[in-house]
């Protein structure tokens, strides 16, 4: 084995230019494949992160996924009752405080109540349909990114004025309101009150910024015309991926419809399946092209050493040992090229990730990059395997030829 290693390293050092070209080819393929994989996966993870932050991990509403079974349905298998509902149904989640306490006893996260009311904001003779969300400022920071999204004012400012509102910045711009503006809020039930703007927020989701206003839970209950009303519980879990299991348990225990963020964004997540196929296809294509380049360079180097093969066979080395020498040479080139490719890939990721993206609607951001060891391992595996194959096949073919024929140039 020492002889095989010594001969292999001698060949690698003897033709430094060829070796450097081969290493550069491997490093280029590895580096650019790492950069593309990190860029594609990073953009996807950033989108999912924004999607998760823009909504609760689990939303418990006062609706039911299916109507409760009727006595006749429990007694008779053939009985089916559809469209049945009581004459008057009290809106909201029953015993919301007890329900929240029950959920908080086992859920790994936080719970916050809210009251959603549809209304119309009127200011300076402008009427805009708005979704008014009554929140608890003490609990809200535990379940949403609203405190970080506020551009003017603060979440605590909801306590500083009667019927205080925090508007989406686009909604405020649409009606011409600003901090301190007095406006009128009216619901479809005819409830009207005067409110004051105490803050502006920007979520980055145009539909939310255009149509949403936040108020205290008490203000939302007044607009809904029902004291003690809570028609939604929002949860933020320690592990966002555990949302479906938590939602299923909450729905099973309370009977109220519980929707995980994965279910609410099902269409988008299905689109990511196609996007993942595209991502791995692109990265695979880059690795395939790089492996062909690696194969071409190393096989050419091996072919040029046919006379060295003849000399070694003339000295009595068996074919297996000759093949092992050239496979080891190719492996060394592949490993060294992969290591330099790691450095190149990391540098490319840093360079691409430092590019700033600016536009008038969002804060300054950078191109998202995913730093995953899997990208490095996948690129290195393809590079080393292609190098070994590139060294094995020509050496195997040349080792079978008689040394005299090689020396005479009959190859």
TrEMBL record:
Domain MacB-like periplasmic core, chain residue ranges per copy: 19-252
InterPro entries: ABC3_permease_C, Lipoprotein-release_system, MacB_PCD
Domain ABC3 transporter permease C-terminal, residue spans: 282-403
Membrane protein topology class: Multi-pass membrane protein
Primary location: membrane
Keywords: Cell membrane, Membrane, Transmembrane, Transmembrane helix
Membrane-spanning parts: 20-40, 277-298, 326-355, 375-393
Subcellular location: Cell membrane
Family label: Belongs to the ABC-4 integral membrane protein family. LolC/E subfamily.
Name of this chain's protein: ABC transporter permease
Source organism: Rhodoplanes tepidamans (Rhodoplanes cryptolactis)
């Amino acid at each position: 084995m020492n002889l095989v290693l010594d001969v292999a390293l001698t060949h690698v050092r003897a033709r430094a230019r060829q070796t450097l070209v081969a290493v550069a080819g491997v490093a280029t393929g590895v580096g650019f494949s790492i950069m593309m994989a990190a860029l594609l996966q990073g953009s996807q993870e950033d989108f999912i992160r924004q999607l998760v932050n823009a909504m609760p991990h689990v939303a418990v509403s006062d609706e039911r996924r299916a109507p409760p079974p009727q006595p006749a349905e429990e007694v008779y298998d053939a009985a089916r009752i559809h469209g049945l509902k009581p004459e008057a149904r009290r809106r909201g989640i029953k015993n919301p405080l007890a329900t929240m306490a029950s959920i908080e006893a086992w859920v790994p996260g936080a719970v916050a109540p809210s009251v959603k009311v549809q209304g119309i904001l009127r200011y300076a003779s402008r009427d805009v349909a708005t979704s008014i969300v009554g929140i608890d400022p003490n609990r809200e920071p535990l379940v949403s990114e609203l405190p970080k999204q506020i551009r003017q004012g603060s979440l605590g400012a909801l306590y500083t004025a009667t019927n205080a509102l925090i508007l989406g910045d686009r909604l405020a711009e649409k009606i011409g309101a600003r901090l301190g503006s007095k406006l009128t809020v009216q619901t479809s039930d005819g409830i009207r009150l005067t409110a004051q703007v105490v803050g502006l927020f920007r979520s980055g989701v145009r539909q939310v910024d255009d149509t949403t206003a936040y108020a205290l839970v008490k203000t939302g209950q007044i607009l809904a015309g029902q004291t003690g009303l809570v028609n939604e519980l929002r949860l933020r879990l320690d592990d966002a991926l555990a949302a479906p299991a938590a939602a299923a348990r909450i729905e099973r225990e309370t009977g109220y419809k519980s929707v995980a963020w994965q279910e609410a964004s099902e269409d988008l997540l299905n689109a990511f399946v196609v996007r993942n196929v595209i991502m791995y296809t692109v990265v695979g294509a880059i690795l395939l092209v790089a492996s062909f380049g690696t194969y071409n360079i190393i096989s050419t180097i091996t072919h040029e050493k046919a006379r060295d093969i003849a000399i070694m066979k003339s000295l009595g080395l068996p074919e297996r040992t000759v093949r092992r020498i050239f496979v080891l040479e190719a492996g060394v080139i592949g490993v060294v090229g992969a290591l330099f490719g790691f450095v190149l890939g990391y540098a490319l990721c840093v360079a691409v990730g430092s590019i700033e993206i600016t536009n008038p609607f969002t804060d300054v951001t950078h191109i998202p990059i995913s730093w995953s060891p899997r990208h490095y391992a996948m690129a290195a595996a393809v590079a080393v395997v292609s190098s070994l194959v590139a060294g094995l096949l020509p050496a195997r073919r040349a080792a079978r030829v008689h040394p005299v024929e090689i020396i005479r140039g009959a190859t």
